[in-house]
Every structure is written in C-alpha cells, then in structure tokens.
C-alpha cells in the first residue's frame, strides 16, 4: 500500500499518491467479464497435510510449463517475460505488488516502509530492513551476506554499464536519474570500463540501510520500477564479479527461491531459499470476491513460501503442453492454448469433464498488446514520406483482424485500437481507430495512389521505382505462429504483395530485433505495472533498440510522450496519451492486432492459485497438497 510521508501533505501531492495507491484497473467491455479476474471453484483451500516449513513432511513441488524458452537470469540483461518470471522469484526489489489486491497496490518488500517522496516527485528515499540475507554462494566464501542499501545502488548502476547491454536502460534514462547517463557517456567516450565507485548525485547510499534516488524531472510513477525484482532486484557485487559474463547462469538473490537446476531452453528447478527471511501470508482481497476471501483467511499467518520447489518445463507446442496438464504432469496450465479453449472453456465456462476432476479456472485480460512492427529504418517499409506511410497503412488495413481473432486466437482476444493495453491507466475502451479496420478495397486504393502497382505484369505489386516489393516477416516455429503466418500470407496474397517468412527461435529473433536486423516481426508486449506509459514507450525515439523495436522517431510523438510522463494521473494526462496513440495510428510504425484474454487452469491439489498480472512470482503465495497430488495423478 502506498502512503504519503507524514510531512508531505500538499493537495497536489496527495492527488498524485492517491492515483498510485488507488489507480483503478480500467477494463474493456469483454463480453461476459465483469471484473478483472473471474475464477472457478469459490471454495477455501483445504489445509495441507504437511507444511512447507516442516522438514519431516513430503516435499511440495509445483510443476508448470513455459511456452517460450528463457534467455538468462541477469536482471541487467533480460527483457523477455519468461526469464523475468524466474528472476522475480530469485531477486527482491524494495517494493512489491500486493498479490490479491484489486485495484493494484504496491507495498514494502525489503523496504522497512514505503519510501519518502519529495514534494516535487524528484527525490525518493528508501530504507531497507536489516537482517535480510542473500542465498548462500561460493562467492561469499562461507560467510552470510546481508543485504545493504549499496546493493541496490550497485544493481541499478549495472543497467548503465555498456558491458551488460541492458534492454531496460531506456526506462531509467527516461526517468533522468541525475548524473548516471552523463557518467555512462563520459566513460564510453573515454573507452573506459564503467566506474561503479564513482558517486553521482542521482543515486547513492546514505548509510548501510538507506539509499536515495534523485531525478532531473518529476516522475509521479517512478516507484513502480522498484516493485520489479526482475529489473531492480538486489545483486551482490562480489557475485557478479565472481561469475563475470556468466552471471546470467548464476543468479543469487535474497528472494524466496534460488536456481537449483537449469537445462537451457528445457527445464528449470527453483528450490526454496533457506536464508529467506520470515514473511507471513497476509493478503487483503476485494470484499466481493468470496473465493479469494476464503483463500486469504485460510492462509493467513502461513510462512512463505509454502512450497519447496518449482519445476518449470519449456513446452513450446500447444498440444504437448495441453496433454501434459490433462495427464497431471503439470499442476498449473498457464494460458490455455487458443486452439484448446473450445474444449477447455466452451462458451468461456469450465468444461464439465474438467470441473468433475476438481480443476479450477482463472480467466483474465492481460495488460498487453499483440502487434507486428515495421522497421522504420528499413528501406522498404520504413520512412516518414507519404508513400511510405501509405504502404504501412495499406498493409494494416489488409489484415483481417476478425478472422485472426476467430480462427487463430479462438475468440480469446479483443481488437486493439491502439497501443495501450487493458488494466492500465490510459486505456480507453471507447477509443476507436482504423487500427482494427479491415478494408481491402481501401488498402488497394492507397497502394495504387502511391505507385505500388504491378509494373512488370507478373501479378505482384512493385515499389514506386519499379523494384520488386517483397516483405520479410520474422516468426517462430511454434503452432500458433504458423497459424498467424498463414493469415499474413492470405492477407498479403489478397493485396497482391509478396511476403516471405524468416523462421527462428524467439530468443534469436529478439537478439536480431534489438540489433535492427528485422523488417517486420510479430510480438506481444506486456505491462509490468498498471500504467500505459510502457506501451507508449514502444514508439519513443530515444528508446530505439530497446522497447522501441520499430525505431520510430517522430519529434511530435516524442514531445507528447515526455509530457504525459511528467503529468499526474488525471484527465489531462489521459488526453495527452490519447493524442500520442493517434499519431501511432496515423504513421503506423506498428500494426496493433489484439489485447489477449487468458485462462489459467489448476489441479485441485494446488491451493490458493490466483493470477495477478503484475505479480510474476506467484509461486510463493500458493500451496500444494502432496497427498492429493499423488493420489489423483
């Protein structure tokens, strides 16, 4: 829970903090959905026969699968959802999102209390609780290693070190932490390694347990960054220096779990961290949610985590992943594959045969957007001239989005009108644009008008200069990607535009994309906090090569992005965000397809399962009943 420091009581500041504390999760009209999360089986979790902190009881293991492989576990290097999900269970940020809260709330994690925030939202002072220790590691030479303020200073500075090529640097640079960007540029120019010992005004440890961050400009929502352990979780400098370039294989944090085993792109085992401090389950769910109220009451006072291990498999193909859950080889089915939703949730209700087995359901809209981007520096699809804009808009208009949602996504999505996803500030379900429009006739007319016509009689459109017009779209080998590719082929055939597909594993495409080597790529973008800024960051010029994979760089858009970033939540900020979205629609550096709806399933031996889209490390809040797990398998 975010609360203002007692000494800071101006009305404006109270409104700012109130917007963080109470920010309503805006929800689109999603058919039968009336609340952000609907769940099956509104019953209290039965008491497990053995507690996780009882060494004499059977081992409690939670098993589930990722649909995309992880890449690394170094917070300074990772940007993908799956690596960050694991890292969030290993590393502790000072703050965290409350697991069962709705609307979203942040609260202290390793911090002793909510940080002190200055009147102008430029200075943030964090006090860390003493007595928190890292997981044991040979780098500590047999000594217990306490968490200190300097660990957070060091961990944040790592994002500025060119050695680590941080994909999240743009977030911190956009916040304009005093002195850090200047230090980075100075050392790059001098061809010197990053100087972690150089003190800068923007971040420093005031004493062993206190650190302070200072910004050049107001940033009312800056605290959200410190609720993400997968980005700003504390790392020990001696561990990083011990493992060097292999630090992504040796994550050592203060969180509830540690990495016990890792077979890259195949299997991860997280084991309970024996050094984890005493944290008791104490959640406050919405008063009108009977199931979550029962969960909170049953678990209140239990020490976290309640399970001993988490076994994560990587199963990229939907059918094996689905069968693995049905055969009770996985305890949780995160994101039921779209092609299996008709049999799992016919009419969006849990199938009777699954309900008879005691399987539970959680259905929720994700704060995300599925999109395809155009590389704005690519000579074919990039550029800001009218004919280049016309090409991208024509391609967008030729995408039959209703067909895609119906056939590929099986109705588990709503058309996107712009970048900003549901459940974040700035999302407006009433906002409409041509982004969701399918109009093949208009698309053809646009291309004809701007000279994209068949010049050699082969039946395919050419560039205005007569050269062949050929699109190249990056994709992955999994089944849903193949189905989406089929739709792209069909859409472009109808437009008489040649398109070729470049297939690679997701981590390989990510690497190529960040290097600016792809013409087009289809990806999803998820928010880590209930704010639409992360979606608008997709088009912010200074973010090129990081969040901004399209490398869009329009001064008018950049100005709007910077303006909304400084404003408190309210009608003025919403209006600026709306104008920014309109520019993204007009210049079309990205085709926004859909905001996805997800359904998770869980077996009856999993107790207390819930999906808070801003809490990645749900593992520490659930329990597993080994007796039921073994008996019903």
Shape, please?
A: globular
Average pLDDT figure:
90
Beta-strand percentage?
Answer: 15-25%
How many H/I helices?
20
Secondary-structure content class: alpha+beta
Characterization of this structure:
This protein has 633 residues and is α+β, with helices and mostly antiparallel strands. The strands form 5 sheets. Strands 1, 12, 13, 14, 15, 16, 17, 18 and 19 form a 9-stranded mixed sheet that branches.
Write the SSE topology.
Layout (H helix, E strand, L loop, with lengths): L10 H12 L15 E2 L21 E6 L14 H10 L4 E3 L8 E3 L7 E2 L5 E5 L21 H10 L10 H7 L4 H10 L13 E5 L2 E5 L14 H4 L4 H7 L13 E7 L3 E6 L17 H10 L9 E6 L3 H9 L5 E2 L7 H4 L7 H5 L3 E6 L2 E7 L11 H12 L3 H8 L4 E3 L24 H10 L20 E6 L3 H17 L2 E6 L2 H9 L5 E7 L6 H4 L18 H12 L4 H17 L2 E13 L3 E2 L15 E2 L1 H7 L1
Parallel strand pairs: 2-11, 16-17, 16-18
Antiparallel strand pairs: 1-13, 3-4, 5-6, 6-8, 7-8, 9-10, 10-11, 12-19, 13-19, 14-18, 14-19, 15-19, 20-21
């Amino acid at each position: 829970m975010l609360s203002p420091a007692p000494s800071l009581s101006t009305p404006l500041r109270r409104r700012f903090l109130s917007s963080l504390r109470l920010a309503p999760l805006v929800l689109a009209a999603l058919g039968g959905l009336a609340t952000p999360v609907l769940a099956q089986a509104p019953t209290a979790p039965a008491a497990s026969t053995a507690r996780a902190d009882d060494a004499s009881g059977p081992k409690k293991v939670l098993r589930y699968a990722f649909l995309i492989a992880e890449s690394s576990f170094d917070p300074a290097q990772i940007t993908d959802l799956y690596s960050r999900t694991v890292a969030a269970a290993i590393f502790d940020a000072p703050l965290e999102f409350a697991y069962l809260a709705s609307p979203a709330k942040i609260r202290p994690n390793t911090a002793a209390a909510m940080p002190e925030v200055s009147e102008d939202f430029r200075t943030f002072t964090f006090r860390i609780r003493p007595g928190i220790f890292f997981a044991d590691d040979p780098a500590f030479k047999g000594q217990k290693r306490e968490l200190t303020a300097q660990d957070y200073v060091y961990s944040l500075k790592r994002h500025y070190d060119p050695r680590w090529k941080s994909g999240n640097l743009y977030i911190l640079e956009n916040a304009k932490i005093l002195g850090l960007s200047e230090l980075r540029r100075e050392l790059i120019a001098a061809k010197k390694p990053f100087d972690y010992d150089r003190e800068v005004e923007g971040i420093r440890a005031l004493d062993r347990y206190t650190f302070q961050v200072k910004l050049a400009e107001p940033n009312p929502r800056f605290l959200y960054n410190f609720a993400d352990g997968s980005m700003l979780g504390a790392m020990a400098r001696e561990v990083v220096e011990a493992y060097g370039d292999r630090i992504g294989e040796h994550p050592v944090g203060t969180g509830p779990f540690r990495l016990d085993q890792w077979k890259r792109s195949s299997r991860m085992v997280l084991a309970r961290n024996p050094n984890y401090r005493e944290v008791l389950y104490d959640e406050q769910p919405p008063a009108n949610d009977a199931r979550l109220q029962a969960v909170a009451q049953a678990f209140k006072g239990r020490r976290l985590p309640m399970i001993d291990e988490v076994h994560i498999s990587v199963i990229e193909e939907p059918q094996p992943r689905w069968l693995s859950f049905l055969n009770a080889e996985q305890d949780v089915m995160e994101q039921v594959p779209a092609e299996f939703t008709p049999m799992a949730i016919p009419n969006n209700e849990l199938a009777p045969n699954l309900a008879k087995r005691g399987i539970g359901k959680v259905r929720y809209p994700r704060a995300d957007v599925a999109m395809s981007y155009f590389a704005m520096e690519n000579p074919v699809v990039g550029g800001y001239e009218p004919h280049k804009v016309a090409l991208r808009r024509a391609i967008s208009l030729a995408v039959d989005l209703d067909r895609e949602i119906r056939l590929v996504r099986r109705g588990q999505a709503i058309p996107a009108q712009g970048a900003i996803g549901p459940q974040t500030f700035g999302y407006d379900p009433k906002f409409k644009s041509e982004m969701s429009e399918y109009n093949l006739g208009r698309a053809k007319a646009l291309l004809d008008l701007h000279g994209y016509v068949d010049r050699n009689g082969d039946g395919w459109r050419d560039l205005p200069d007569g050269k062949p017009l050929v699109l190249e779209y990056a994709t992955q080998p999994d089944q849903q990607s193949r189905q989406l590719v089929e739709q792209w082929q069909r859409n472009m055939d109808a437009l008489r535009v040649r398109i070729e597909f470049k297939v690679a594993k997701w981590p390989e495409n990510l690497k190529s994309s960040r290097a600016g080597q792809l013409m087009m790529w289809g990806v999803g973008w998820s928010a880590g906090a209930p704010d639409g800024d992360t979606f608008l960051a997709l088009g912010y010029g200074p973010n090129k090569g990081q969040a901004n994979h399209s490398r869009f760089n329009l001064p008018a858009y950049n100005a709007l992005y910077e303006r909304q970033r400084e404003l408190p939540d309210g009608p003025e900020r919403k209006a600026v965000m709306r104008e920014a979205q309109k520019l993204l629609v007009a210049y079309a550096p990205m085709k926004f397809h859909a905001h996805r709806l997800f359904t998770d399933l869980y077996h009856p031996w999993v107790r207390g399962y819930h999906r808070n889209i801003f809490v990645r490390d749900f593992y520490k809040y659930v329990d597993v009943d080994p007796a039921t797990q073994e008996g019903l398998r």
